[in-house]
Amino acid sequence: KNKELYSDLFDIGEEKEGKPIFKKTKEIRFSIEKGIAGQVARTGEVLNIPDAYADPRFNREVDLYTGYTTRNILCMPIVSRGSVIGVVQMVNKISGSAFSKTDENNFKMFAVFCALALHCANMYHRIRHSECIYRVTMEKLSYHSICTAEEWQDLMRFSLPVRLCKEIELFHFDIGPFENMWPGIFVYMVHRSCGTSWY
Predict the structure, then answer these.
(1) C-alpha count within 13 angstroms, C-beta hemisphere, residue 31
(2) pLDDT value of position 12
(3) Which residue(s) pair with 73 in the sheet?
(4) Which GO BP terms apply (predicted)?
(5) Gap between the Cα atoms of 154 and 148, Å rounded
(6) Per residue in 100-131, pLDDT tens?
């Protein structure tokens, strides 16, 4: 929405008990119009760059910011429902001067799993948000549907005016002008329809 790319989570190849360690660092944020990642985000194409500094699209600001030296890049879009929702990028292949076609295919599968994970996370967030709205709504309904002891006493003492007892049976009866009597009229109508033994 703000036409920016940012990242603060990196897999730098370290492992602990056989599992990869993802490290958080200072957030890197830059315009979607810049760099290899920006190009991939805009176009949705896969870019395999064997020499980063020889490519004019490479954004050197990232290396200056991180102190890292980028040699080669494999950048892949994360696509969900036909739209690019993110970008994943591998840099500096350990063995070899550039990423191979096999690397591209394997990384493409990784990007698919990323898309699924992000989609599930987004759906979970929406469900939790809907649950919060539901709880607030139910709390409001509960608050407004429970009468106080004073209101209950007023309803017990309420007696429908004789004039209304006749008018309420008519098809064209308009309850609007009797707003202050609505609770009592409702109780009267329930008793007339269902009897007083149940309610």
Answers:
(1) 6
(2) 62
(3) 49, 91
(4) signal transduction
(5) 10
(6) 999 999 999 999 999 999 999 999 999 999 99
- pLDDT > 90? residue 29: no
Q: One-letter amino acid identity for 71?
A: R
Where do the domains of the chain lie, and which CATH numbers do they carry?
A: 4-117 (3.30.450.40), 149-194 (no CATH)
Amino acid at position 35, single letter: G
Q: What is d(CA 183, CA 160) in angstroms, rounded to the nearest whole number?
A: 11
Per-residue three-class SS string for the chain: CCCEEEEEEEEEEEEECCEEEEEEEEEEEEECCCHHHHHHHHHCCCEEECCHHHCCCCCCHHHHHHCCCCCCEEEEEEEECCEEEEEEEEECCCCCCCCCHHHHHHHHHHHHHHHHHHHHHHHHHHHHHHHHHHHHHHHHHHHHHCCCHHHHHHHHHCCCCHHHHHHCCCCCCCCHHHHHHHHHHHHHHHHHHHCCCCC
Q: What is the pLDDT of residues 71-92, one digit of tens each?
A: 999 999 999 988 999 999 999 9
Return the amino acid letter for 79: V
- Calculate ∠ Cα 48-50-56, nearest 5°: 85
Of the two residues 163 and 41, the one the predictor is more confident about is: 41
